[in-house]
Amino acid sequence: METKSRTMQIAHTILEQINYADRSALMAWGAKSFSAISESKEFEGGLSFQVNGLKHKGWVKICLRWVDDYTIIFINKNREVVKTFEGAYCDMLVPVIDWIEGK
Predict the structure, then answer these.
(1) What mean pLDDT comes out for the span 72-86?
(2) Could you tell me the residue range of the domain that residue 64 belongs to?
(3) Number of domains the chain is built from
(4) DSSP string spanning 52-77?
C-alpha cells in the first residue's frame, strides 16, 4: 500500500509543479487522461497524460529519475517515441513542453 501512495504522491507533485509554473499550461496543451507511472529500475515514478497541442498530438510522460531530475518523453498517436528530453528540473517542465509544442 505504501508504494501505491508514493506513486500517487509523485504524480500529484508533478501536477502541482506544472500548475505553479503556469496555471493555464495543461489547458493550453489540451491535457487529459492523467495517470501515475509506477516505480521502475530507471524511474522513481512519474505522470503520463494525453495532449492535443498545436504540434504534438499524443502523450507526454514525465518520469522522475532516481537522481532527482526528470526525463520527458513525447509519444505520438502511433505510440512511437518522437522526442526525449533528459535532465529537466521542476522549473523546466513547462518551458520544455512548450518548446516541443512550438510556442
Answers:
(1) 94
(2) 6-101
(3) 1
(4) E-SS-EEEEEEEEETTS-EEEEEEET
Q: State pTM to two decimals.
A: 0.90
Both ends of the chain: CA-CA distance in Å? Answer: 40
- Of the candidates 18, 16, 3, the one whose C-alpha atom is nearest the C-alpha of residue 60 is 18
Q: Does 60 reside within a domain?
A: yes
When comparing pLDDT for 56 and 34, which is higher?
Answer: 34
Q: Any idea what DSSP says for residue 39?
A: P
Per residue in 16-51, pLDDT tens? 999 999 999 999 999 999 999 999 999 999 999 999
Helices 93-101 and 2-21 pack at an angle, to 10 degrees, of: 70
